[in-house]
Amino acid sequence: MRMSDSNTKAVVGIIADTVLQQHLVGTLLADEEILVPVNTSPAQFTTEAFNTPVDLWYVDLTLDEGFDDFLDLILEAVDVPVLIGDGQAPTRNSDEYPRWRRSFLGKLNQQLALARASTAGEAPLSVGRPKLPPLPLPAVLSQLENTPVPQSVWVIGASLGGPGVVKEFLDALPRGLPVAFVYAQHIDASFQQVLADTLGRHSAFDVVTAAEGAPLGYGKVILAPVEQEVRISAQGRIEATGKHWSGPYQPNIGEVMMGVLRRFKEHCGAIIFSGMGEDGVQASLEYQRCGAQVWAQDAASCASSTMPDAIAHDGYCSYRGTPRELAQRLVERLAQEVSPKLG
Q1: In this structure, are 225 and 270 located in the same domain?
Q2: Where are the extended beta strands (E) located within 18-133?
Q3: Which residues lie below 8 Å from residue 97, measured CB to CB, with a gap of 6+?
Q4: What angle do CA 196, 198, 203 make, to 5 degrees?
Q5: CATH number at residue 63
Q6: Residue 128: what pLDDT?
Q7: What is the DSSP string of 250-274?
Q8: Spatial CB neighbours of 82, under 8 Å, sequence gap ≥ 6
Q9: How many Å separate Cα 283 from the centre of its chain?
Q10: Which residues are catalytic?
């Protein structure tokens, strides 16, 4: 999937699982003079479409028709951003349509701008990267017993281009790794459950959306909610605050990082993956002061490296690597932390 020529009109590919959604979104984009070379359903999508030059793909799966494998394919094969839809659009003559149209075009124009900006000076991602087996679990880590409250909790932060590389990272981690994750991904709330299902399909980790009272635990990834801020209780459980996240994007990665840091101090860490903006920079300073680790994805493997670059530029990042290299580093660090305790 190649980026279109930046001097031409914007080009968007549409993949929606209802004919009505294809029609409504396709007509709206045509009205805005945005080119739509592909407008199809997951069932009719062909591998030839991967060769279509687009600025981004718009994916809207409103039905539960077992399209998890298809979503896996998209997230793993794309080298341009994917914008996930908000669900079925209202009809053009409905009272809700003007509001939906403004919201949709706002997000689309923002993502198109980010997509074009993200190509400046960055290497394209490889299409169809070969699947590699999970990393081996060090023997020293297999001796650990589970604890009511995890002793190691890491934040995963990502935005534009995040889901695919985070999936690659999680797929590389071995079963039995003594770490819990809280994942903050800038995304629409309607896509969170689909994201959780997709990320967990080939991973040793259970990926779940946040629920009131849900416990953090080894082998678990909890998706930070989009709708409201959460905190971590003394018992290591998710607690809703009833407050909205601050900032333009939700969930706020920096606030998620600070919530985990306040509870777990130096026993936590954060990994910042692909994304635009500087979400997490200030929180990374606090991690550094507390002795907690902050790592970032390397620029060459990012769809957009602005966010991890910002962390590294300010001197708060102690390691950068590809998703699999980050997974390897985490396995090694956890083994190093455990060895003195068992010795």
Answers
A1: yes
A2: 39-40, 56-60, 82-84
A3: 89, 90, 91
A4: 90
A5: 3.40.50
A6: 42
A7: SS-HHHHHHHHHHHHGGGEEEEE-S
A8: 56, 57, 58, 59, 74, 75, 163, 164
A9: 18
A10: 159, 186, 279
Please state, as a whole number, how many other Cβ atoms lie within 10 Å of the Cβ of residue 277: 18
C-beta separation of 310 from 154 below 8 A: no
Show which of 118, 151, 167 is a domain's final residue: 118
Count Cβ atoms within 10 A of the Cβ of residue 242 and give its class: 0-12 exposed, 13-18 middle, 19 or more buried: exposed
Domain with 200, as residue range(s), is 139-342
**Residues constituting the chain:** 343
- For residue 3, being part of any structural domain is answered with no
**CATH number of the domain to which 228 belongs:** 3.40.50.180
**The last residue of a domain, from among 118, 147, 177:** 118
Q: Environment class of residue 21 by beta-carbon count within 10 Å: exposed (0-12), middle (13-18) or buried (19+)? A: buried
Nearest to 121 by CA among 312, 279, 300: 300
> Which H or E run contains 169?
helix 162-172
Partner residues linked to 37 by β-bridges: none
- Amino acid identity at 341: K
| Cβ-proximal residues to 295 (8 Å cutoff; 6+ apart), any chain | 269, 270, 271, 272, 317, 318, 319, 320, 321, 326, 329
pLDDT tens, the chain, 343 aa long: 444 544 457 899 999 989 999 999 999 999 888 899 999 998 898 888 888 889 888 988 777 566 667 777 777 777 777 787 767 788 899 998 998 888 788 778 767 765 655 444 333 333 344 578 999 999 999 888 788 899 999 999 998 778 888 999 999 999 999 999 999 998 877 678 878 888 888 899 999 999 999 999 999 999 999 999 999 999 999 999 999 999 888 899 999 999 999 999 999 999 999 887 889 999 999 999 999 999 999 999 887 788 999 999 989 999 999 999 999 999 999 999 987 665 5
Distance CA 135, CA 148 (A): 26
Contact 77/165 with Cβ under 8 angstroms? no
